Amino acid sequence: MKLAGPVSRRSHFNVMTECSVLPGCETEVLGHLAELALATRIEPGSIGYDYFQSVENPRHILIVERYVTEADFSVHLASAHFAVLGKALINPLLADRKVLTFKGDGPTR
To answer: Which tens digit of pLDDT belongs to each residue from 54-99?
Structure first.
């Protein structure tokens, strides 16, 4: 499949976080993630922030983040919205969390 329009390739910094939410906290975590996604998507170095709830196990959430550089991800981690929403409100509601980082090429328009 060919993408329409001009496409250039450049390396990005990608983060995938797998979360296991404490029983009964799914709705609260998803609400906080919605707020965190809105704030993160407008950061200068953010290319994308999406999250998904498993169909088979509603307590399993996958967060997919994409940044221009690793430094942009570091800026995100130091942001006020991440401190409040991520660290203070979401993390205590998780039974487990695994963060994976990747560098790779991807299409940019």
So the answer is: 999 999 999 999 999 999 999 999 999 999 999 999 999 999 999 9
Alpha carbon separation from 50 to 17, 29, 59 (Å, rounded)? 11, 14, 16
Considering the domain 8-103, what is its CATH architecture? Answer: 2-Layer Sandwich (3.30)
Q: Are the C-beta atoms of 46 and 72 separated by less than 8 Å?
A: yes
- Nearest CA among 58, 56, 63 for reference residue 18: 63
Judge whether 39 and 85 are in contact, CB under 8 Å.
yes
Alpha-carbon Rg for the chain in angstroms: 15
Provide the H-helix boundaries in 19-102: 26-41, 70-77, 80-81
Q: Which residue has the tokens 């991800």?
A: 73
Instruction: Please tell me the distance from the alpha carbon of residue 53 to that of residue 56, in angstroms, as a whole number.
Output: 9
Q: Which residues contact 43 (CB under 8 A, 6 or more apart)?
A: 72, 75, 76, 79
